[in-house]
Amino acid sequence: MAEFPNIVPALPEIFLACVIMALLMFGVFQKGGTADNDVGTYRIVSLLAIVSLGLTAMLLIPVAGGRMVTFAGMFVVDGFAVFCKLLVLIAAIFGIVSAREFMERHGTARFEFPILIIFAVLGMMMMISANDLIGLYVGLEMQSLSLYVLAALKRDDSRASEAGLKYFVLGAVASGFLLYGSSLVYGFAGTTSFDTLAKIFTGGGDVSTGLVIGIVFIMAGLSFKISAVPFHMWTPDVYEGAPTPITAFFAAAPKVAAFGLFLRVMMGPFGELVQQWQQIVVLISILSMSLGALAAINQKNIKRLMAYSSIGHVGFALVGLAAGTEAGTRGVLIYLAIYVSMTVGTFACILCMRRNGRMVEGTSDLAGLGKTHPLLAATLVVFMFSMAGIPPLAGFFGKLYVFLAAVEAGLVKLAVIGVVASVVSAFYYLRIIKVMYFDDPTDALDKPLGRELSIVIAINAVVITLFFVYPSPVLNGAAAAAAALFAG
Amino acid sequence: MSDFPLLSVLTFAPLLGAVAILFVRHDNAETVAANARHVALFVSGTVFLVSLILWFQFDRSSKAFQFVENVEWMPTFGINYHLGVDGISMLFVLLSTLLTPICILASWTSIKERVKEFMISFLILETFMIGMFSALDLFLFYIYFEAVLIPMFIIIGVWGGPRRVYAAFKLFLYTLLGSVLMLVAMLMMYFTAGTADIQALMAFKFPIEMQRWMWLAFFASFAVKVPMWPVHTWLPDAHVEAPTAGSVILAGVLLKFGGYGFLRFSLPMMPEASVFFTPLIYTLSIVAIIYTSLVALAQEDMKKLIAYSSISHMGFVTIGTFTLTTQGIEGAIYQMLSHGVVSAALFLIVGVVYDRVHSREISTYGGLVNRMPVYALIFMVFMLASVGLPGTGGFVGEILVLVGAFKANSLVAALAATGVILGAAYMLYLYRLRTIDQGLASKNQGYERTRDRCICAVTVHHALDGYLSAIVPRCDARFGRASARSSPYIFGRCGHRRQTRDCRRELTESLGCPWPNSRTSSRRCPRYFSPA
């Protein structure tokens, strides 16, 4: 009988899996039927989900030390994984907190929602810790399936169902790509373990064409998950169609997880082949930045606009990946941390956009917000300027560090294209500010804002505004995480 | 006293004031507005007084950076919170702290809506301006440099004229595009030199090929800020649409960012490239001087006229800077300061009548001298200063620049000198049409009312303006001396003033050009305008 694997590194995941089972049982056996009961169950499950996500974050502390590999080399925990997992957990907590009001208003307050989110989080944590192509795929699928269901959670809404279906079909194709790429890599290299692959590729040397094709397929699959151009088609539709709190969750946590995976795969096993894949990443990055900047200009729906904006942000983060260095990894991690905060904050603002009890999503609905809701408008201004990358707000530092890495790696042209794209994208962020402050108000949006949303907005606005005062925690965390990735 | 972080206090005091205003709450909007105004005036006035302390404690005999503060900020990247002022930046810090309370006074009655937000924007703007002039770390500098756009965008966009949205977007995007290119160059500098410290970078010798690229990237940013022809088009729009205080601060301080950037970065860090690109600068500046002067002549909008005159005056600044002579650089610094005061005053003067009549057309006015004689007199003083009449601030800057330009290239100097003539032409034209000619104002009954009601406001505004004009001649000597001491510092590697010339020779010779040995001497220039 094989030795029993060391389960300590995977303790947070195991805990989370148990929580899911328990909450599922609890939800199923709770008295249902009436709307009030459903809402009550939803509230309790949400609260428990938030608490257990918090506890999972605590459980990450004991494993935060060095690099640990377990389950026959399938599962790895290091500083990098801990950093990414923390980001995912924070994003998920914000996601559940800011969803409550919306869900209860729209009669979708079902206990499955927080459970599905935890399911997705579990998948993401496994993705981040994957140390094997099979582990990678299992984690990815677990995450993706939960997300497909989440997108279509509002069953009676045709837009949401369409979004879910679209997401599922395209996501399945991407997973197919990934799997096909993995099988090619396995076929040509003879192993699925990242550690062994890294050993094979040490020193670069001759790489067979089949292997390169395999890597390209894997990259295509991963690009889909982070919605980089040209694999971005699903993003605007899904963002627009899915219920807003779910879009908010989509925009933050899965991006972090997929980027974590992308970084681990590219810097780990394929790190020595940087010459082979760098130009692909550079191209994807340029395309994403440009499309994100140009396509968003004409959007009238703010969720669609945010979709293109997120494509642009992915492009900027990819600049760091294209550098292919430790500094680049550090830049991407800082970028992701700041991006999560900006996105969560912005979507919380979008969730506040109600008129006469109904959600509105047009950018023109924000007209005159500066007069009617001065504080909400001011925070949204902070997020918009930050997304545009204007110092001293946090978004600037995110861009600074990825471009820093790119210039260090000699990718000056990429950096120039990046900064020009950031100027173009500044236009539509400014336009939102213009609508809020310079245009005359139409009908005012509803007051008051929900308490949870206000708290979420306030926390993130403070983080974004005051990041420059004391940036060291994030910078040092990201630096340690990047170092851990390269040490292994 | 040396340990006390005076510069940080100076930088962040306005921000604290802004936070204080944020908490002003009352049911009555008028009470809130009044409170906001008073807090803003009090804070910016105090900041000005503190900056005077700084000014009097400033050791004028030293060319080193003073009041230095250096704290680790992002140790992972070796980026520090590093502040300090030398002879050049000291003057600009003072200019910023002086103009902000004036702007707040100027908006006392003219800004009626969202007064609280306006005052917050202005105080934040002041923080960024002071921070930019005192930053000694590359990235700290950049952060302030670009951050200024946020309050400026909002000031123009919210309180501006009818085409304010267009103007605000243009200002923002033009400037941002220039700045981000500079950012890339900064990153390259940071990696090549291995430090983000401005003093260390000044001493670092970059390879020539790299210098040229970096110079162009910095040029992209500073040329937009200055603004130089052909990237100047945002300025007339921004000036025309901005509220009076916005125009004042834009002309008074923000345009100086470019000139300051040339002095702080382009010249000392990329000396060879600066020499290499001098013809480009000369050409663009000459075009700017002559072309924009002609455009100014054709204007019917008085704010636009002053905006174009700004571009023309800033052309002198860029020429002076790149003559790479002591006189030229001193003249450029002087020209920036006098332009900062004079054009700011002109915008205030224009604003005074605009706030009453709400027309910027020159032809609306006329005969103002009969209605507002004091006003006409003050206007005349600043108009003459703008023209560069001897005895006013504008003269010293222009003559020094021209002397410097003659030493470097007499053709450039001759062409630039035509700008002085054209400047006199359009300013006198403006003055004649507005104040002397019998125009609509003499028929317009509206003035009767405003005359009594607003004489008070005019006095408040112009007591300050008048005070400024009074100190301008006295400052001549002082500014001149300070800049004389500080300008050698521009050339980082050179020890003191007379070596500036040697430095230039070094630059010239390093490019393989023979240095004219016995012809010019920096002592040749008449002594009266080159003190010390």
Cross-sheet strand order for the largest sheet of chain B: 1-2
* CA-based shape of chain B: globular
**Per DSSP, what share of the residues of chain A sits in E-state strands of 2 or more residues?**
under 5%
CA radius of gyration of chain A = 22 Å
Number of helices of chain A: 19
Most extensive interface between two protein chains, with residue counts: A-B, 34 and 35 residues
Q: State the helicity of chain B in percent bands.
A: over 70%
Task: Please give a structural write-up.
- The complex is a heterodimer of chains A (488) and B (532).
- Chain A has one domain.
- Chain A contains 19 helices and 4 strands.
- Chain A has helices at 11-29, 35-60, 79-105, 112-129, 133-151, 158-189, 194-201, 209-225, 234-241, 244-267, 274-295, 302-323, 326-351, 369-372, 374-388, 394-408, 412-437, 451-466, 472-487, and strands at 68-70, 75-77, 354-355, 358-359.
- In chain A, helix 3 (79-105) runs parallel beside helix 13, helix 13 (326-351) runs antiparallel to helix 15 and helix 13 packs antiparallel against helix 18.
- Chain B has 532 residues and is mainly alpha-helical.
- Helices cover 75% and strands 3% of the residues of chain B.
- The longest helix of chain B is centred in the C-terminal third of the chain and has 45 residues, at 446-490.
- Chain A binds chain B through residues 370, 374, 381, 385, 390-392, 396, 400-401, 403-404, 407-408, 412, 415-416, 419-420, 422-423, 426-427, 430, 433-434, 437-438, 468, 471-472, 475-476, 479, and chain B through 73-77, 114, 117, 139, 142-144, 146-147, 149-150, 153-154, 157-158, 164-165, 168-169, 172-173, 176-177, 180-181, 183-184, 187-188, 190-191.
